[in-house]
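A quick aside before the break. I want you to see a complete sequence-to-structure record at least once, exactly as it would be stored in a machine-readable document. Don't worry about memorizing anything.
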Amino acid sequence: MDLTPLLSWACIVFTVGMFSTGLTDLRKMRESKSADNIQFLPFLTTCLNNLGWMFYGTLKMDHTIIVVNVIGALLQILYIVMYFLYTKQKRLVTLQTLAAAAVLICGWLYFTTFLTEGDARLHQLGLTCSVVTVSMYLSPLTDLVAIIRSGNVQVLSFPLTVATFFTSTAWVLYGLQLNDYYITVPNTPGIFTSLIRFYLFWKFASTSQSLPSYKPLHV
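That is the input. The structure line, written in tokens, reads:
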């Protein structure tokens, strides 16, 4: 039985749902007319990651990867624009965005000019995207250490944790179905970090005496 179509839809639905958690930050910015206490770099790095995977999906002619990352990139661009409108640090945001654009242009030139057509370009792009994705999944580990020390899970988002778990699981299964380790390997850490968060919710939620606040911890 070919599970590829089912897994493809699962990847699209769960991943778009995970990307949409940024709408909460967007609502906060519109209501407060401020970008205070909201991180900008996760939007920027996620956008770059989406564009990289979109290129990978295009080279591989994988419509699932293309659709997911087109939607993801558009959402991240929306978040970036709205953040710029409401932030007081427009100079810093502009410099960070220009630096990201420079990285994107350099990467584009490297993969389209210096690499020959064929498997070499696909493999190097897949490896690059995988490394970036793994680093994004593992970046919150320092925050998790702080949570373990403080016993306060209110800075975590339970809905985002659930979305990350199902999204990572769907992509791991999809990668296994296609025998594509550039999809399987980088999404595996997302499962483990989500399980760690579930454990922290189970252990510390009662001591916090309230439900976790909906403040995304970006992956």
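Two observations worth writing down. The chain has a mean pLDDT of 87. The chain has nine helices and no strands. We'll return to this after the break.
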